[in-house]
Amino acid sequence: MNKMKKTLLSNCLRGAQVLGLSLGLAMSLSACRTPEAGALSGDPLPLLDAPPAADVAPGYSTEDLDWQDGARQRAVPARLYWPAQTAQTKQTNRHAAGVPLIVFSHGIGGSRRGYSYLGAYWAAQGYATLHVQHVGSDRALWLGNPFGLVGRLQDAAKETEALSRVADMRFALDQLLKGPHGAQIDAERVIAAGHSYGANTVMLLSGAQVQRQGVVMDQLRDPRFKAAIIISAPPFYGETERTAEILKPITIPTLHITSTEDVIVIPGYHSDARDRIAVFNATGSAAKSLVVFEGGSHSMFTDRAGTGGVALNPLVKTATKEVALAFLSQVFDGQSEPLQQWSERHKAIVNQTQMAAAAFQPFSVVRPSGSQLATGLGMLPSRSEIQQASSTEQ
Fold this sequence. Notes:
The chain is an alpha/beta fold. It is built from twelve helices and 13 strands. A nine-stranded mixed beta sheet has the order 1-2-3-5-4-6-9-10-13, sandwiched between helices. The chain starts with a helix and ends with a helix.
């Protein structure tokens, strides 16, 4: 593996252009086919955090964990949302083994503080949630000298970081299971979840297989994860022609969430909801479901308020956090009612045409149908997105 990694990581991203002293008038990456061009990377958008969640709230508590992976000389910060006894008891009546666990991977530019609406809700409902921070592609990208931002973003998109994110998730799970909460966690109900770049990380942990020099990197899969929640998953950039081959080995139950306006647009590159649906189609899970909201935006699934529509944003957040647990209830308890009730409750914001086209139903199985996929590239944010991130980051 060491030899293969050295071969993998020999080239850097190319094509970023900066005109004069401007940070982004033409900050785009040219089509780059080397593995270093982010073939395993995802979202270029800045993902902003909400203010830190309260240390104690009804139904759950939070704990910030500052781990250090000595073998990799890499910090792995995390935030744990832990269910209160009442919520824990509610969920574990049927499962004497313990508390279910969701391990969450943020998108590029995020942190352990992000996606707090998910962690808080899931913990209040009895699911421990561990939000892992990936130091090579976290909120530090938006800090420091603005003229170094291009280089920082290039580094975050490298395949080295994509592989490190997978290792972060595995290490964080190791540490939690070895810690004081470990004996309380149900090892048969451990779930991987992530948004955008984090969704790519989750797919690799779930069994997605990429090849380098004819060798399948199948050691990235972690069999401890029994299901996956995949939000706004971009294709594997530079390898979209192999999407079906890469994702077919994923066999655990998967829930895919997107919206009709889940769009990434930067100079020279466009990726929209069709890419997310193509990922769903290609995933080999025998048990999988797709949710497509009407309207919205790519960053609507983060803690950011207003993006995707001031009225729609909170509705989608509520529907997203609820559908995840309804899906897991189907997976682990065989209960179809929660998903059916969810569908009726949130039908006003679901795109019925897209759902019908995907034959959505609990555990719908949609086979790859030869849909056209756009060629993927490594990407950087536009100037306006960088300015927004620097002015509103907590």
